[in-house]
Structures are given as C-alpha cells and as structure tokens.
Design brief:
Blueprint (H helix, E strand, L loop, with lengths): L1 H17 L11 E3 L3 E5 L6 E8 L19 E3 L7 E6 L3 E12 L4 E2 L4 E9 L4 E4 L5 E2 L4 E8 L4 E6 L4 E7 L4 E5 L5 E10 L2 E3 L6 E3 L1 E2 L18
Parallel strand pairs: 1-8, 10-18
Antiparallel strand pairs: 2-5, 3-6, 4-5, 6-7, 6-8, 9-11, 11-14, 12-13, 12-15, 15-16, 15-17
Length: 230
C-alpha cells in the first residue's frame, strides 16, 4: 500500500514539475495614465490563468495575499482570467501584477509555485491639443481659434497652416485663443504640444478657416424724399 502511495506521489511531483508557467510575453514596463494595455503569457495547453493587481506591496507576500489595487486606480477591462487580459490604468504610481496558472486534475487543481510577478509604472499622461470648430471669415478679417489643452500648465504648442509653423509659449490656461488672418481658406493643426510632463508629437485634429471674398465696389443711389418734381 505504501508502495502505491509512493508511486502516486512521484507521479504528482513529475506532473507539477512539468507544469511550469508559460514564459511571459513582452510587456511594457511603463504606461500613461488613462491608457489600456494588454498583459499576457504564452498559453500552455491545459492551464488556466488568473490575474491580480497590487498597488501597495510593502511587506506583502504575493504568494498568499490577493490583489489589493482599488478599482479607482487600475482595473481589468472585462475578465481577469485568461492567457491575456486588458487593464485600464487610471492613476499614476507603481503597480504590480500577478498571474497564477492552474491545472485541473479532475477533483482538484494545482498552482504550487506557478505564479509570476510583474511591475508597471504609470506615468502622467502626455498633453493633447484639440481645435474647436470655427466660423468662416471675410478676406482681411481675423479668425479666433480655440485650442483645448489637456495636461499641466504651462503649455507650448506649434501651430501649422500647412506651410508655416508658429510657436506659442507660456500658455497658462485652456482653452487657448489665437488669432489668424489667412487670405485664402486654410487648414490648421497643432503639430507639437508640451507641458510640465513631456512632449507629444501626435497631430491634433484639423480645423478649416474658410475665407470668403468681400464684395467689389458698386454705385449706391440714394433717394431723397424731400425733393420735388419740377
């Protein structure tokens, strides 16, 4: 009887030894607040995976303590189970994630020494710029463009009309209003925006300033009601 138990114990140890965690796929070690990123491992047939998030890990034993990250700081988009999951990062800070692999053996499952830990730093999001719609103007008039900015003041932006680029520095409030006087219909974009946290080269939306010609000169006839017929 002892021999049978010994054989079964050896078989179980062999199975567990072969049940190593699949190698983690390349993960980024930093993301921007507001982003959604994918966490993944290369799946092993027969394994199931459970992910957990941690925000405060001082003195924490990952093997026994469940995820403690508040949903207001970071949260799974959809399920936290599977070889790959998606996480929305809401606040800046340092986070850890744990993925545990389980394998079912009919009446029980095993996860001994079958977990991996990863670390992600959430950085302040880069600034963005967005043009609000503007009204047409007559040739020679000035159009006032409203640029909505996100991030932390002060900002600096580069505004392009397709030919020339103008830089506006030390912007302290959003929206930022700038005046332009194109002579023909012109499309404007922000090609660079920077703030205290960094520089973004993502092109903003485009805004079109339509320029209408002014009417030409013409004779104006006046009628004098006090005049009398001779």
């Amino acid at each position: 009887m002892k021999t049978h138990k010994h054989i079964l114990r050896l078989l179980l140890l062999i199975i567990l030894a072969g049940m190593t965690m699949a190698p983690a796929m390349a993960q980024t070690n930093s993301v921007l607040a507001g982003q959604t990123t994918e966490l993944a491992v290369a799946p092993v047939a027969g394994d199931t995976y459970v992910w957990e998030l941690y925000e405060n890990v001082n003195g924490l034993n990952f093997a026994v303590v469940p995820g403690n990250c508040p949903q207001t700081s970071a949260d799974f988009v959809g399920s936290n189970m599977g070889a790959s999951v998606f996480v929305k990062w809401f606040k800046t800070g340092t986070y850890f994630y744990k993925v545990t692999a389980y394998r079912d053996y009919g009446t029980f499952s095993c996860s001994i020494n079958n977990l991996k830990i990863g670390k992600i730093t959430v950085l302040e999001s880069l600034p963005t710029a967005y043009f609000m719609d503007t009204s047409p103007i007559c040739k020679g008039d000035t159009a006032y463009l409203s640029v909505m900015l996100t991030g932390t003041a002060p900002w600096s932006i580069d505004v392009s009309d397709g030919i020339n680029t103008t830089t506006y520095n030390a912007i302290t409030a959003s929206p930022f209003i700038l005046g332009v006087s194109p002579t023909t219909t012109t499309i404007y974009t922000v090609t660079r925006v920077s703030d205290a946290n960094g520089v973004s080269l993502n092109v903003s939306n485009a805004v079109t300033v339509t320029v209408n010609p002014k009417p030409g000169s013409s004779h104006i006839y006046q009628y004098n009601p006090t005049s009398k017929k001779k």
